[in-house]
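QUALITY CONTROL LOG
STEP: pairwise intake check
CHECKER ROLE: data steward
CRITERIA: each record must contain a sequence immediately followed by its structure tokens, with no blank fields

ENTRY 1 OF 2
RESULT FIELD BELOW
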Amino acid sequence: MRRPNRKRSCPREKRFGQPPAGVDLDAVARQANYIGSQEHKSTPMPGQIFVGPRPNASLCDPAFSPTKPSWATLRLWLETGIMNGQFQATWDRGFPKYVWHKQGDQAFLAIHSGNGEYHGFPITKDEWPEDWL
């Protein structure tokens, strides 16, 4: 049974880190993929069984849907965050666990969920990495 009113899993250490020795960030960025999370979608995602959003989940902005061009924007932000070193030092199976990207005054956090796949969400300024403050 899930705990009600779950908090987001933001990293405790909000600081950019270094990749493990010998890691090619461009190759990691090319292999990373933004897939989103069904728990936060109000519409089905291609290739996934639609279960609907979790009852207490915040819903993603419908403008960022896999069937719209903006889905490629999310993928680009993930890739850019990795290539620019905007990730925490913790790595998970060859990928940074947390990747940040800032677009204007809005910042986003992507979390590695396995196999190079990420889901993400906008974050508030108090959740920004120290490197941006």
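ENTRY 2 OF 2
RESULT FIELD BELOW
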Amino acid sequence: MGQKYWLPDLYRTQGEINLKAPSPDIEAAEQAFRVSIELAGEQGAIAWELKAAIPLARLLLAPERVADALALLTPMRLIRKKAAPRISKRPRAYWDLSDDRP
């Protein structure tokens, strides 16, 4: 994977910069977020996928694009629900942050 590992986060950052520029480029930001989500999905990096999906969903929350925003985030909710049972079955000591064990 090498240096391609960071590409999803770099594209997400590019999207954020495009939105915060003095004259925001909405289309370029949307494209950067979509590329970030696609690359993160290819890597199986769910956290980075979600990290790019949230600002893209905010961008799509214009009244005429609400359905697009919901369609984008719905699969992410399903992934979270599938992972939740596995996470909650960990032993309590695993979650104790005060524990000095590795």
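INTAKE CHECK: passed for both entries
DESCRIPTIVE NOTE, ENTRY 2: Helices lie at 7-20, 26-43, 46-60, 66-88, 92-95.
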